[in-house]
Write a structure and sequence with these properties.
Elements (H helix, E strand, L loop, with lengths): L2 H15 L2 H6 L6 H19 L13 H24 L2 H8 L2 H10 L5 H19 L11 H20 L10 H20 L9 H26 L2 H7 L2 H12 L7 H17 L1 H8 L36
Helix pairs in contact: 1-10, 1-11, 3-9, 3-10, 4-5, 4-8, 4-9, 5-7, 5-8, 6-7, 6-8, 6-11, 7-11, 7-12, 7-13, 11-13, 12-13
């Protein structure tokens, strides 16, 4: 599989994560951890069924560090994200948590980091900030410091998971099915300990099914391919499209209003992604880079393991991941 194609598949996860806000908004009063347990169980079960013919469960025979990274990354990010939203203002906490694409660019590039990688990631972050804040000034309250720290930890966990996954590039993507089922089990225990169970009603079941099959199912399999075989700096910068696409989906569904911030965010995010992926686009088109500048080559797999989003993860309000 070529690097550009793997990067494209990884971006498929970002496209699916754009549906998180709409689907999550349709799940009613189901508590976050219960929702995670249900969605990861559905995603894991679907992966198990689809992998029966090729006996995908054989990929679950992995050493404990692989399982620790897989389940720890998926569950750790989502748990920290939920706790952050409960301990700080959602807008500020959500924006801090969405530092993970920028962290991926920085961690994955290492010494190969180039100015256009960083500039593209910062443009994407600026666009995401406009979407999350609506163009309003942030209010930093001292009592929210714990929530901000949890949000920062969530961003660090997901970016680390994404980059560290590259260390285990030989682990088949079918192993993600096992990670999803393991995450569902841990989330179920956490739900029983911290929340009160709420039975979904009517169409809420359809929303949960959609989450489990798409943003919390197929998305993590596509992300695994992207972070292991694709161009991580490009994928990280392109991931800032998730909150924008999520907002566009909500606008199309009549649950949000178009505004100047959405238009400006669109320019920043798409421009940033194009800038960060400049080298890959040149290679694809067969165009030579400017004199004195060699196209970026991804760091060797031992140095670029990869943990966004997100997630985007089932959140309570757009574009909370």
């Amino acid at each position: 599989m070529s690097r550009p194609f793997a990067t494209l598949l990884g971006f498929g996860a970002v496209l699916l994560w754009a549906l998180l806000a709409l689907f999550t908004d349709s799940t009613g009063e189901v508590p976050p951890l219960q929702l995670l347990a249900m969605c990861f169980a559905i995603g894991g079960a679907a992966g198990l069924v689809l992998g029966v013919r090729r006996r995908g469960w054989r990929a679950w025979r992995q050493p404990w560090p692989v399982w620790a990274l897989g389940v720890g990354g998926l569950f750790g990010y989502h748990l920290l994200y939920v706790l952050a939203l409960r301990n700080a203002e959602p807008v500020e906490a959500g924006l801090i948590a969405y530092l993970w694409p920028l962290l991926i660019v920085l961690m994955a590039s290492g010494r190969a980091l180039k100015p256009h990688h960083l500039a593209g990631a910062l443009m994407g972050f600026g666009g995401a900030a406009l979407i999350v804040t609506g163009g309003r000034a942030l209010q930093i309250a001292p009592e929210d410091v714990t929530g901000y720290a949890l949000a920062g930890a969530a961003a660090l966990v997901w970016s680390s998971y994404s980059v560290l996954s590259r260390r285990f590039a030989s682990v088949p993507t079918d192993a993600v099915t096992g990670f999803c089922l393991g995450t569902a089990a841990v989330a179920a225990f956490a739900h029983l300990a911290l929340e009160t169970t709420v039975a979904p009603q009517g169409t809420e079941w359809l929303a949960i099914l959609g989450l489990g099959l798409g943003p919390v199912g197929l998305a993590f399999h596509l992300w695994d391919i992207g972070v292991k075989r694709g161009d991580l700096p490009v994928l990280g910068a392109a991931s800032y499209a998730a909150p924008l696409l999520s907002t566009l989906v909500l606008i199309a569904a009549g649950r949000a209003e178009p505004s100047w911030t959405v238009a400006l965010a669109c320019l920043l995010i798409t421009g940033g992604a194009a800038l960060a992926s400049r080298d890959m686009l040149w290679r694809r088109a067969g165009v030579s880079p400017p004199p004195g500048r060699a196209p970026h080559s991804a760091p060797p797999s031992p140095a670029s393991p990869a943990r966004g989003t997100p997630p985007p993860v089932p959140a309570e309000a757009p574009p909370r991941r």
